Amino acid sequence: MRESQRSPSFKRTVIAASLLLLAVISLFVLRSVVALSFFDDVNSRFEDDWHAASGESIMQPGEVAVFEASYLFFKLGSVRFELLGKGECRGKEAYRIRAFIDSYSGIPFVHLHAVYETCADARTLMCLATSNDQQQGDDWVHTNYIFDYAQKRLEWEQSVKGVVTKKVDLPLDTSYTDGLSFFYYVRRLCGGSEGRKMEMTVPIVSDTDRSSVNLTINEGREPCDVTAFDFPIESERMSGHINFKGTFGVTGDFVGWISTDSAEVPLRADLKVLLGSIVVKLKEIRREGWVPTRAE
């Protein structure tokens, strides 16, 4: 069909479908989708295995960072990361991390809500246990991951309304991050690099896929503009490549910027998708005593 013969309704359908795809892709890549207001008080999935403890890290307990994803002039949704604290999980000292994503109202056909929670080994930031709840229609689908490194297996279980619908045991050949722990793993990696350019491959789990992300850090200092501040922030550029294909075909190259100070706060990421690029910027942060370095 020629362009001139396409009806306005057909064009609107194509535009709506494209925005839907881009919104879902961007939110999946960020690996966290925020719960509805009634779900904000979700209890930890690891309460029986969690014991409060004191401790400090480059990732400050109590820190909250909110990011906003956009495509062209369209704001698609927000992502909220929370570092809840440090304690014990599955017999190891661990960080408890939670993340939420909320697709904005007004995006055609998009209504995405979920909450993710991870216990990450305090020493390595590799996953010990992960849980997430995602809204699908009128139901919430719960997925639970237990990383049993001693037995070299991953226990993956999915349920709806408390009834198990799928259960899989997967072999583990090494320790893995997930979307949440990867976010903090990169920060610690940059903090310990002393500004040296480094290339590495980071193991990562996405649903039942055991794969990796190629990453290069400290590619050069650049100013970075974010929504959270009215001045450019001094940052280090990084780049990488996602080696797995996630839901809706998420894969490929990305570029990111992280602050050069000791907090190593992620500032921005540009993600390649089928129809262009998604831009994710720091919108808000609550971190005691942190003032970013202004770029000259």
Short description:
With 296 residues, the protein is mainly beta.
**Could you list the spans in which at least 5 consecutive residues all have pLDDT below 50?**
13-48, 51-56
Helix-strand string: HEEEEEEEEEHEEEEEEE
- Counting DSSP H or I runs of 4 or more residues, the number of helices is 2
Instruction: Give the strand content.
Output: over 45%
For the terminal residues, how far apart are their CA atoms? Answer: 53 Å
Radius of gyration: 19 Å
Shape: globular
Question: For the residues shown, what is the average pLDDT?
Answer: 80
Structural class of the helix and strand makeup?
mainly beta
Portion in helices? 10-25%
What composes the largest sheet? 16 strands, antiparallel
- How many β-strand stretches? 16
Number of domains: 1
Q: What does this protein look like?
A:
The structure is a single chain. With 296 residues, the protein is mainly beta. The protein has one domain. The chain has two helices and 16 strands. It has helices spanning 8-29, 179-191; strands at 51-53, 64-71, 74-89, 92-103, 113-121, 127-136, 139-148, 153-160, 163-171, 198-206, 209-217, 221-224, 233-242, 252-259, 266-273, 276-286.
